[in-house]
Task: inverse folding
């Protein structure tokens, strides 16, 4: 079992705490956050602290803090053991002043108040020492996930693409639900369409499941839809996405 | 049982043909398409024709053709029985020269080569005669769906919102998969993220599930992502969607 200290109290840290206290490969010995009140609830099960001077000696320091804080937290740990961050968009080089660096990035969206299954979850793993690649892969597997070896350059692309797919995909649903509300139409009517949209794209590939006025160049319907939109921002998005579909499916 | 003639050979007509030949409320007596070779496969089970002069007398004519053709098809039928179209974006008034008009619009995306469940599928129904509303609602229920009474104005909004959610949602997945291919990253790694994105938005509402650099105003990450994008079209979309998220979550 890898003696591990968890650092941070964001969404990801909470999910890791829950999972790692029940993971055969990991012995979670301590949880650090500068705001100890956020993690005090866990102190019956695990030692918690907001003092860096009290951080225990461990085999693995798992940093789950905001991107900007990773560098300074790493310097403070001051260890020759493994220091790992969990951010998609941050290079492994940002772990300054430590010899055994690693990245352990779960490709998923996390919310504090929602349960999440780690089953089949992809973990993008990078390490400076090849032995640590095996160690982190074993932890990913023990959590139920699937380890992938991914370097910092590729991971940065994946992080950007995750924004495109997750953040922007959610925003389209948000805009749709906002317009529905304006017309007193319950969002639930759209649930089957939303489910079918992504299930079909995953099954057949999104290059084969594009339908609608843009791809069949149905200018009449496009004009009709633009006429129904009073929000200039949504109108602009409608036009840009229509053009993008047409440019990509000529 | 409602004696029904099905008109058209697009995606929707194929799914209706399959479903209506096994529906207790409907007796499908004929299928018309101007391209009879498209529907010849069905002639062991049902009469097929490409001649309007041979269209049978029926209780219900179900028009599943392209939006532009609905008006002229309706005129040709020349009946006092019920004539119904299935288009989201077309007003009931487009059914010219017929006294009993109706709309029977399933809010879903259909592909010819993919099986689709009608279970819990929302049907937007509108009729000029209130009795026909009940008749079409019963057919929707017998198909496994859920009938909703929706007028032409509201249905036009729903059709536009369906484009926003389905067509544009699929296109974001397409752009993501295209970028992944360019970087030799298998699309499958993103499947859990895509599933979670949609499931979470349906469960908690997309207004509660927005995450990412746009909503937390993380300008550094936004700049980083824009720097990774060489495709000017995707760059523009990234910026517009980021601005839209920020304007909507102030």
Result:
């Amino acid at each position: 079992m890898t003696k591990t200290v968890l650092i941070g109290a964001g969404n990801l840290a909470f999910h890791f705490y829950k999972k790692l206290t029940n993971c055969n490969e990991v012995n979670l010995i301590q949880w650090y956050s500068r705001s100890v009140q956020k993690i005090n609830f866990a102190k019956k099960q695990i030692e918690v602290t907001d003092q860096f001077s009290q951080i225990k000696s461990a085999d693995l320091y798992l940093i789950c803090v905001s991107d900007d804080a990773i560098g300074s937290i790493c310097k403070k740990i001051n260890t020759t053991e493994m220091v790992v961050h969990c951010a998609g968009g941050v290079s492994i080089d940002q772990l300054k002043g430590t010899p055994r660096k690693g990245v352990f990035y779960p490709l998923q969206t996390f919310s504090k108040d929602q349960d999440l299954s780690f089953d089949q979850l992809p973990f993008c793993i990078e390490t400076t020492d090849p032995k640590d690649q095996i160690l982190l892969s074993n932890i990913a597997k023990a959590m139920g996930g699937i380890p992938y070896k991914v370097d910092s350059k590729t991971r940065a692309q994946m992080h950007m693409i995750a924004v495109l797919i997750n953040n922007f995909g959610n925003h389209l649903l948000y805009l749709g639900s906002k317009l529905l509300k304006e017309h007193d139409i319950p969002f639930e009517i759209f649930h089957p369409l939303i489910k079918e949209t992504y299930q079909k794209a995953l099954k057949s590939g999104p290059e084969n499941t594009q339908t609608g006025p843009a791809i069949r160049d149905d200018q009449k319907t496009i004009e009709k839809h633009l006429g129904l939109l009073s929000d200039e921002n949504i109108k602009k998005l409608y036009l840009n996405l229509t053009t993008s579909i047409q440019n990509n499916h000529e």
